[in-house]
Amino acid sequence: MITVSHLSKKYGSHTAVDDISFTVEPGRIYGFLGPNGAGKSTTMNMITGCLSPTEGEVTVDGHSMLDEPVEAKRHIGYLPETPPLYTDMTPYEYLRFVAEAKGVRRDKIADEVADVMASTGIEDMQDRLIRNLSKGYRQRVGIAQAMLGDPDVIILDEPTEGLDPQQRTEIRTLVRELGRERTVILSSHVLSEVQEVCDHLIIISHGKLAANDTMENISRSLKPTTSLLVTVKAAPDEAEAVLAGIEGIESFAVTVSDGGSTTVRVRYPSEVDLRETISFAFSDIRRAVVSMGIEEENLEEIFLRLTNPDGDKESADVDGDGGAVVDTEAGDEADADNDDEDDEDESYHYDPRDYLTDEDMAADGGDDGEEEDDDDDKDDDGGDDDKNDDDYKPLFGGR
Amino acid sequence: MLAIYKKEVRSALCGMIGCVMIAVMLALLGFFTSVENIANGGPRFEVALYDAVVLFVFVIIMPFFTMRTLAEEKRTKTEQLLLSLPVSMKKIVFAKYLAVMTIVGIPMAVVALYPLVLKLFDSVGAVNLATSYSAWFSLVLMLAAMAAMGMFASSLVENQIIAALISVGMYFALYFTPTLAAIFPPSPPASLAALIIASVVLGTIVLAVTKNSTAACIATGVPAAACIIVYVADRSLFSGLFGKILASLSFFQLYGDGAMLGLFDLTAVVYYVSLAALFLFFTMMNMERRRYV
Predict the structure, then answer these.
(1) Residue of chain A whose alpha carbon sits nearest to that of B74
(2) Residue A25 burial by CB count (10 A; 0-12/13-18/19+): exposed, middle or buried?
(3) Is B213 at the interface with chain A, CB within 8 A?
(4) Is the confidence metric ipTM above 0.85 for this complex?
């Protein structure tokens, strides 16, 4: 369907995309995953012919994007990062324009436009100016635009970016429906989204291909670890002494310590829940646990594990600025978690940290350098346990 | 291509700027016609058009028709839609150009009725439709060349105001080339120096556009070397040469000369058409180049 071979893009001396090759088979949903600035959009722009590669080639259905761009583009529908909408038009006018420009046959235009409006649910908005539509509806108009002309492959660049949780769920459902009939390539830096929707993952990091495999295989190669942020009213050495005495903890590191309270990041295998144990251990020495919250594993860590499965993370630590990061959102969440700790069915739908920023990434990536010596221990058991009764969402765990 | 053309015409007519500019152009051309042909009782319609040209009417108005065309697409990122459509850049640029010319054509079509109106009230047979329409036709071609230059300016930047300013700058430069030609020293060394400077400017532009220093060196070196060789061989050729080159670029004067003499000037026709084609080509290349940066 789509063959990407040795694709590179250089901006002066900066290499945005470095020798990426993969193929896209029909009838699947591909997740294109990578942190901000990894080269996702650049790659997608090259696949769709909006950008010319410095090296390498893209062929769509046997047509080279360089030599036969018009033929190749007929097979692709593209929603770029910013939906390319003419805000002075109504969705109906806009979709008609795109259909005509894509060369849809005159007698079929009305039907196709009606079809895509129905499947993206924008019929009620069809006569309002796009300028006046909400972000979610604009995104839908953008997706509708990509669906016109019945392309074999639909490429969506971060379609849920900047939407509220409700809208994100709707767009995900829409993508899943799209994937029934066509090939969809979906880029994202939101883990849960890709995990929910896609069959196949292509992960890129720093412009390089980090992984390219089915979702199942990638889930199998990753063993979930829980990362827990614990804040206690105790001195750092006291906290460390307590944690050192708890069995099952893989590693821990003090991240913040001020005004008599200490925050520690604790890691342990996800198949056990050590929160109670930790809580009781501190109450035994009459030290109050102020908050406790589970951090979702971020992309950077997954890349490190994928590209460096033996856990020699120190060498992969990009900036190495270590801990000392106060994540206020994490703190709030931790409070909430602590309050209803006994509520087993508790689950939250919206985690602000789903949207990883570069800073988070760098900070968390930096933390990795601290206490990872015993990472090797965790290689011996499988990671497919379903922890449905917990608020921990396994990243690639069996779903 | 038709779809893009229709969309462009529609958005120009639905938007404020297009309509306002059509109205302004009609008002000014109507004003000059009233003054020259009605109030002053002159039979020559071409004088009214000529007034509009010398009084910078089109220098001010034309950028408004072209400034949005490509700059706005880049600013709002709708450019990416155009780039991902199965339509070649050549067709996109041409469709947009045709749309601009359609909008400009609306007031020009209305104005085309004026000579007929004058003829209607002409009891002495002084109104010459042939000279009137040849002046009108040359003016349309001149506007076509200006529109192509304006679109090129719009393809250079993302901000439509800056695109308009660049077009105004280009038009003014063309306005003043005849004046510059007249005052330029006619001595051969002066022409040689000016041509070498022009080669360097050409090389700089090539460097800025292609970011390729080899191409820039060739663009500077070849014409400069050619000039020096010719100069050494026969320096009398360079006497007043640069002035002549400048004079031959007289964009607006060329129109004025033809129109005022009642001529249908083929030189002007060829000049305007080739200038329009050249700048459309530049525009297309520049848009295509954006894929490569």
Answers:
(1) A84
(2) exposed
(3) no
(4) yes
